[in-house]
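Lecture notes, continued. The same structure-token format from the folding unit now serves as the input rather than the output. Read the line below as a description of shape only.
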């Protein structure tokens, strides 16, 4: 069974009664009022991997922002981890965001901090002690291929290494879901595929992954189901490429 129903309908399969993300007739913020047929209704199952595609400006980042509670829908309902985000207070938002890893379109690395301190930013912000997060961060950096570069500044990294550092930072707190906005943007083919394989490994370990990308060829190469956003509608394109998998098929 697919892990998503999208586009025009408001009904969702009974088996997806408690998905990790659910949009019910959601109109994206910041645009003109849209008819109900152009509002988004879909659900993402826990442990799934999807790629959200569409042209620049179509609303991919807005969808990610609604999931991580960095914005509110113009209308409709967004549920994350089984709860309506409209009911979240400020403390709730902080608590729930700890369960979500974020990769931004721009690296947003702190240039005066070394690789280790950039990767450790989230656990430090939430008040963890170095003895608790240090080994985990070091292991994560080794996994993305930066274990021998922990003491260097971001300026010494290649574009691909910077993106891998952004992955390590997003995963340093062990989130249940990863939202990746254009994680392969500006990378050549091999560097982009390496980032994509890391995201697949993250998903294979059980983390829900939603990646937004303008690169439809790379999205197809991922083998993950593709959600194509165009003029307020989602088209679901299922796909599978064994060479890119370790994520399980439903």
């Amino acid at each position: 069974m697919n892990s998503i129903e999208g586009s025009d309908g408001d009904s969702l399969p009974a088996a997806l009664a408690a998905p990790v993300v659910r949009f019910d007739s959601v109109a994206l913020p910041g645009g003109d009022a849209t008819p109900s047929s152009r509002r988004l209704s879909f659900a993402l199952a826990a442990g799934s991997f999807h790629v959200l595609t569409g042209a620049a400006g179509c609303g991919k980042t807005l969808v990610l922002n609604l999931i991580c509670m960095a914005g509110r829908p113009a209308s409709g309902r967004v549920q994350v981890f089984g709860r309506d985000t409209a009911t979240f207070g400020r403390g709730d938002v902080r608590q729930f965001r700890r369960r979500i890893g974020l990769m931004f379109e721009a690296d947003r690395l702190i240039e005066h901090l070394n690789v280790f301190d950039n990767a450790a930013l989230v656990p430090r912000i939430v008040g963890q002690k170095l003895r608790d997060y240090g080994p985990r961060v070091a292991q994560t950096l080794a996994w993305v291929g930066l274990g021998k570069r922990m003491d260097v500044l971001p300026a010494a990294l290649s574009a691909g290494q910077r993106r891998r550092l952004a992955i390590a930072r997003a995963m340093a707190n062990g989130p249940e879901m990863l939202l990746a906005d254009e994680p392969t943007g500006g990378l050549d083919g091999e560097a982009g595929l390496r980032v994509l394989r890391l995201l697949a490994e993250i998903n294979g370990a059980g983390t829900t992954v939603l990646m937004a990308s303008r690169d439809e060829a790379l999205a197809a190469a991922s083998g993950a189901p593709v959600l194509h956003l165009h003029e307020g509608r989602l088209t679901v394109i299922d796909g599978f490429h064994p060479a890119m998998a370790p994520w399980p098929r439903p």
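Point for the exam: Residues 142 and 188 are 22 Å apart (CA to CA).
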